[in-house]
Amino acid sequence: MPAHPAARPHGSWVPMRRDHPFGLQTLPYGSFTGPDGPPHAGVAIGDHILDVTAAWPALAATDRDLFAAGSLDRLLAAGPATWSHTRATVTGWLGDAAHQESVSRFLLPARDVSMLLPFTVADYADFYASEHHAANLGRMFRPGSEPLTANWRHMPIGYHGRAGTVVVSGTPVIRPRGQRRTAAGDITVGPSLRLDIEAELGFVVGVPTAMGQSVALGDFDRHVFGVCLVNDWSARDIQAWEYVPLGPFLGKSFATSLSPWVVPLSALEQARVAPPPRDPRPVPYLDDSLEAAWGLDVQLDVALNGTTISEPGFAQMYWTAAQQLAHMTVNGARLRTGDLFASGTISGPTKDSRGSLIELTWNGLEPLTVRGNHRTFLEDGDEVVITATAPGPAGTRVGLGEVRGTVLPHPEHTVPPGAPSARAGNR
Ligand code: MN
């Protein structure tokens, strides 16, 4: 181990492999609990967690109660000056070997704790920002008409989801039940036969606004603290029958999974890229042509039962998170600390970069082969893991961790293997 961090400018004295996605370049925040303790806030470093709820009052000079509640709520509300001071402090503690003796007693092996939801989710909204995803679903759900609706290139389309069913990674997902319409036109009630995933990025709001206030594009990073991974589980058969005219409802609200580590926007500086060209030019409050770029070069991996089935890239998303926030507040709706908004399914132009099973299997018509089995929608017992990394300083990769979930059967119904591909048209 080097005696001084100057020998490894992006290294830490905490032992870890050199290319660890949770190296000093990342320092994501989360909330955890031991076997019988209360929640504590932590910062991930390699395969360890720095317990900042314990370390802050012992070592930090200011704001000793910042992490006392064991969640990120207070940090989120504190705003950009505290965000950068806190990150600089933790970077110093973990990067400078002079602090090893005082800081190492607050490190825990990550495998010894359980991760919790990192913050209190206030409102949850979900967007639809991938042109490829929106066009693919338009072709499947509205064959014969224009794939994109008339409004799509003029505003980031979204809907309000259910904050109360946002769950942390690892929480089992119970197969939802609801109304479907069969291919023959019959209305039935039962467990979804077309349970799907949506691979997305989530953006976490820290600084609130007052009623009537709007957030301009240039103020994005004064309000948004960081990024996490989202799996927006979707019951396509329930969704297809209910979504006209008011949008998704029960087909989405049964569960939304969130990665436990929130990566600060400041860790993603090297990932910022220009978004794709927009045509037509957006209206002024969405026109980012003269603004700092908020495209993000985040590379995702979607695995079903341990096999990668898709590798979506975020850089080509048509609408940025800054535009989504500007749109979400243009009407004067206020922001609250803990508001979460997700990007929408991240799908690229190629088949192997589609972020949902409905696209990967073209509504079940083109099964995937996973470990020798033909697969379409999710079966009971399936495990989905979404991971992601982004470029960091000096050739490092910034890790976004993972969002993981296993499908459990509906308590009153079981779906035999293979049933999703065999039955129940969705309109
Ligand atoms: Mn979604």
List keywords for this structure.
single chain, 427 residues, alpha+beta, SH3 type barrels, Fumarylacetoacetate hydrolase, domain 2, 2 domains, 8-stranded mixed β-sheet, 5-stranded antiparallel β-sheet, 26 strands, 26% strand, disordered N terminus, binds manganese (II) ion
Description:
It is built from 10 helices and 26 strands. It has helices at residues 52-59, 73-78, 80-95, 100-103, 131-141, 220-223, 236-242, 321-329, 357-360, 419-422, and strands at residues 29-33, 40-45, 48-51, 107-109, 114-116, 124-127, 158-160, 166-168, 173-174, 177-181, 187-191, 195-196, 199-205, 224-231, 234-235, 256-258, 263-264, 272-273, 295-296, 299-304, 307-310, 340-342, 368-370, 373-375, 383-391, 397-408. Strands 6, 7, 8, 13, 14, 16, 17 and 22 form an 8-stranded mixed β-sheet that branches. A 5-stranded antiparallel β-sheet has the order 4-3-2-1-5. The chain has a 5-stranded mixed β-sheet with strand order 9-26-25-20-21, with no helix packed on it. The chain has 2 domains: 29-115, SH3 type barrels; 124-408, Alpha-Beta Complex (Fumarylacetoacetate hydrolase, domain 2). Manganese (II) ion (MN) is lined by residues 126, 198, 200, 232, 344-345.
